[in-house]
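User: Hi! I'm working on a homework problem where we have to compare a predicted structure to a textbook description. Could you give me the structure for the chain below?
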Amino acid sequence: MSADSPERKLCTRCDRVLPLDAFARNRASKDGLQSRCKACAAELARQKRPRKLAARPPTPDGRQTYCRDCFADIYRARRESEGHVVKPAQVPAGFKFCRGCQQVLPLGDWAKRTRSADGYHFRCRECVSRKDRADHLARSYGLTPDDLAEMLSNQNGLCAICLTAEAAHVDHDHTSGRIRGVLCFRCNAALGQFDDQPANLRRAAVYLEGDRPSRSRIDLAWQRRLVGEGFGQAC
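Assistant: Happy to help. Predicted structure tokens:
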């Protein structure tokens, strides 16, 4: 049975393919399991234990030097000095701390997530939306949020075609992938309706500007079609 089997998994440390029950659970991983088997994880923990004891010698009474609150304050200060996002010491009931914007927000501002311990996403809805937008720009167009902001600034925030509506949709050449600009929904959809063909757009412009067949020419063409189909006689 291969490592790709749904009943087995490859340990990244010992390179053995083992049954799933040989791995501890990990909610953060894609398959819900640790990348190392239980035996390897236990061995690594045994190797780290002497280093931890050497770094923090035992006290005579077996207790920490600081109380729980002081130890928590020291830990938060150290994490913050290392550039990590630090959760506030007190978060009111019905609220949650966002790792993205680093604000304490009501639970109504959060999407639910069954895999998390509290049942909510670790970022608020606005931060999740912002991250999804950034991921979409990078994946679809190779742009960063700063790139898009610069394009919008160059267009004064307006559609590059109609110059009136808000620019909200990145437009690109579907053949070459070249980014052309940022358009409003209607102008972006209109280009699609014309199959991104400049010739079609030019003919449409000529049509709208009034250089089109007269009514009599249209009537004559329609009459000829009817005659051709046997519905009457041409004049």
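For your comparison, note the following. The two ends are 84 Å apart (CA to CA). The chain has three domains: 22-57, 71-122, 127-208. Good luck with the assignment!
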